[in-house]
Amino acid sequence: MADVTEHPALERLQRLDRLGRRPSSAAAARPAGPAKMGYQPTLDGVRAVSVIAVMLYHAGFSWAHGGFFGVEVFFVVSGFLITSLLIEEHDGSGKVGLGQFYLRRARRLLPALFTVLIVVGVWAVFWGSTEQQVALRRDYPWGIGYVANWGAIFSEGSYWGAGAPKLLRHLWSLAVEEQWYLLWPLTFIAIRKVGRSGARADERIAARLAGVSVAVMIGTSLAQAFGWVSSNALYLSTVTRSSGLLLGAAMAFVWRPWRRVGKRPAQGSGPPLGPAAVVALLVLAAMVVVGRVEYSTTYLWQLPLVTIASAVLVAVVVHPWATGPRAIFGWQPLVEVGKRSYGLYLWSWPISAMVGADEGSFSKFVLAMAITIPVSEACYRLIEAPIRRGALGRWWKTRQRPDWNRITVQGAVAAVALVVPLTLFFADRPAVFDPAADAGNSDVVFDPNAAAGVDPTTTPSAEASVPASEVAVSDPATSTTAAAPVTTAASLPRRVVIVGDSTAHSLAINLPSGIESTFTIGDGSVEGCSVYDSGKGVSTRPYTRTFDGCAGWSDKWVAAAQSVNAEVALVVLGAWDVFDVQTADGQTLVFGTPANDQRFIAGVQEGIDKLSAIGVKVALLEIPCMRPQDVQGAGVPALPERGDDARVAHLNDLLRQVAAANPATTTFVNGPAEYCADPAIAADLAYRWDGVHAYKPGAKLTFEAAAAQLLAIPV
After folding, report:
1. Could you tell me if 116 and 232 lie in one domain?
2. What count of other Cβ atoms lies within 10 Å of the Cβ of residue 415?
3. In 3D, which of 570, 668, 559 has the Cα closest to residue 613?
4. What is the pLDDT of residue 182?
5. Residue where one domain finishes, among candidates 377, 403, 427
6. Quick one: pLDDT band at residue 162, thresholds 50, 70, 90?
7. Is residue 255 a part of any domain in this protein?
8. How far apart are alpha carbons 691 and 627 in whole angstroms?
9. What tens digit of pLDDT does each residue of 242-263 get?
10. Interval 591-607: pLDDT, tens
11. Are 566 and 499 in contact, with CB atoms under 8 Å apart?
12. Pairing state of beta strands 568-572 and 494-500?
């Protein structure tokens, strides 16, 4: 019997098989092409570290105040990764498929975002405060359009302002990235069409992009140093935050170690990848600890330093020879966290805000994470991953199935039934929320008898116990103070503008009924500013208040006084003046020291000079004893300095000194004694809704105590 291998048919099959496996001459002549980057798990490891830093920052831990720098690391990774992919696609096919690029981005980003928007909206309907609902009404359109950063810039007040935590506040960074994803591919295509290809051309492109990145860093530093732009805009705008994206993109044109790496060099002869990674990590860790989002140093040098350190770290972890760093950032648990970093970022902040895990409480942070991790994982497995892998496309291809129409209609009805009521609910919310506005107490009535019975010759300013010679005032030779005509009787209603901080605002908007026959009141308050335009107040509780956005406060006082043709400006201060102060150059002015006192006196004097120059008399209202309480939605916690009666008394002594130094223009006005003498009234939240800011009963108390004194001021 012949061997089966000698069968003629089998031999022919074997020859054909060998021919099929042998490459054709054309294929053999074709170069294999440069190696591609492929999936880099270490970049996910970097993402994981970044999102953890951001979540610790959101938790309010004092040792992670600089965790917000993690967002900058994300930007550098995105700039490098997206540009590397665009380069490889263009080099491989000579073009970039924009449609597929945008489709991939939509699959990656939109499903999780829309899920978060719906879940947050449902939660806010049933359990959110009115303030949070109003914020969502404003934030929804910006968030859906991926322009939340510009919405935050153009909205009134600071991104970090007082009030309940905004549930969608974190969408600003996703907006910056999405705007990058939209514009950069178009720019990339234009660059490739205009320029030549090749290593030299890529080096020129990289140099130009790096130059633009550095220019953005320098411009941002100068804008902060000279106050050209608010901190709000510096932190949030796509322009000022593009430096990391641009530097990452620049690096992608010249840093492709997976293409050029051949045989590993001898020990010590290659690039110092390990030491570079260590230095970059130390820089980033230091910035997480020392950084503060409200510090001017953030924009002067810390943010550029973080951008550069992030670029170094990214460059190292994608290099095949960086064995140690790649082992650390390629650790599988870290990589898995990085794969889910987008969802963790999306979910962690609103959940933290919902459970109050934003003030440094470890137990609340644990609670927030116990909710965030399973919710984010469910979203990742059930929504994000299936859609990214083409679940919607497969669903569309099954449209010939008999039950396709029924399933589609059911899904559409469910979506409409969820989205439409949410839309109608939030559209019906007020456009603006004011926590100080007293919606009730309509029965609180001003007693006109309180306006009678004070002799104008014994106004409180004449009783100041400290001589005016001890107060630093403006030079009389240059002062713009002008004496106003004196009358002996006040014509009613007297026109009064209330200026100062948020306590002034709450007094001005919560007028008791019937006061209009005695006073016409205008609101000239500049919330959160007092009489400062730089530095910040520092509490012993982990809370600071920056005054960087308060430039021009005295001009705003003047404009408000002119708008109501005011005869008297009632200055209401104190809430931000009881603290130690850290100046813009980092110097600490302890409360009660001569330097701190002089800062307060100089600010008050500036306001007096500006108001007196337009013929408005100034009344300095006595600062009341405060009884701050932690109230839901207040935003500002119960700061102990506000409850320190000795600090309040010291400030009132300074106000008396200033009034005594300006007898022709300024009067010290006594407030209600009950706030210091009657504990029942002082701690009653019906009078002051958080122990500091007046509601209508508190405003009635103050106006009745001050009415006769205000009417006695000669104008």
Report:
1. yes
2. 12
3. 559
4. 95
5. 427
6. low
7. yes
8. 5
9. 999 999 999 999 999 988 766 6
10. 999 999 999 999 999 99
11. no
12. parallel
